[in-house]
Amino acid sequence: MLFQQTVRRSLSSHFALGLALVLMMSACASQEETQETKIFDNEIVIDLNQLTYSIANEHDQFYSFIGVRALAMVHLALHDAFNAITPEFAPYTFEGGASMADPIAAAATATQLILEKAYPARKDTISMVCTKWLDQVEEGEAKAAGVQLGKSVATQLITLREGDGHEKQGDYTPMTKPGDYQYTPGFDYVWKPDFSYAKPFTLDSITQFRSPLPPSFESEIYLQSFEEVKTYGRKGSEERSVEQTHIGHWWAEFGEHSWNRIGRITAVERKLSLRETARLFALLNMNLYDLYLVSFDSKYNYDTWRPYTAIRAAERDNNPKTLADPQWEPEMVTPPWPEYPSAHAAVGAAGAEIVSEVYGTINVSFTMTSVTAEPPGAERSYTNLDTVANHCAASRIWNGYHFRFATEEGKKQGRQLAQFVVSKFLVPLDQGEEEELSHN
Description:
Blueprint: H1 2-40, H2 43-60, H3 66-85, H4 103-118, H5 123-134, H6 141-161, H7 220-232, H8 242-250, H9 255-269, H10 274-302, H11 307-312, H12 343-359, E1 366-368, E2 380-382, H13 385-398, H14 404-424, H15 429-439
Antiparallel strand pairs: 1-2
Helix pairs in contact: 2-3, 2-4, 2-9, 2-10, 3-4, 3-6, 3-10, 4-5, 4-6, 8-13, 9-10, 10-12, 10-14, 12-13, 12-14, 13-14
């Protein structure tokens, strides 16, 4: 009996000790999980992207470089701040380390400084959102280090981009020979005709990916492209299907809208980490900024007419096979800049290239609407990013904006730049080490 009581007491004691150990380990694991979730949850990156996007869109609907520049700077700051805490990718510009810094405090501080510099009139909104995140961080050394890190990263980027020429307009006078760009209805000006002074985020020169000469009037590809947009891009065309019309209007929005939205949706659905999400948006937006430089350098270098002018004045192109239609109008109002190559097609292809690189597959699914959808709020679903790029490009033909040869060149140009950006900037550290070893 005494032996049994002793055994029971011993077992009870061991059970209590074991239970205490289990509970302690569970508490530690729970604490570690909470800390891990805090570090790697991407909610703050999504929220700060939405803040930057909304302010930029409300400011001028992205009709200037201020918005895409702000998006690129904010996300490069987030990328470099997170990377200073735990290095995972190559930094963009900030080389310092701050392993004890709180990432939330760093992100909120950097974003606030950059956005208040870009949009001083929106300080109240910017402060409200960024303070909301700062208030979630417990006071202490980690928060203080995070705030200091955010200030350092933001200040370095702001200094780097001072005087980068993003707000300059330039001068333009339309030429008059056949094929030269002419103003189209609704506009007596062009947008950003001179990028020679603009500073890229990634390029050595804005001519680095300049397009080749567009096809001549006598070529078969010009004739085919002419006939296609004349038929399918005409306002109210009966040859264009309901689906083509829907795609044309749906993809009419600027790339700043669509690719930041695609980034937000897919980053949430795929549970991308904090650092991966910051990198995704940084790649998308600095590529977008530089792609506009590259595309518009080509546009103004070749200075070619839009379908609106080409179809109405076809008797001037010395090609007897292109018949003029003086009454022809495009499905949507033509943007005020030269035709070749298509910047929109370039943006779509580049976005597809970057998103597929981040996720490691072209098969990325999402459902969303667009700001130009008809009817408003109409959704489209995609499962393949190549389809996204092709629809984005084709929309410009079905809207009457572009010839197919311009959209094909745009896709090629966009992919070339995107491949350059993802191979040279913000690369995974293990990839960079492998490349360095392969060169030795």
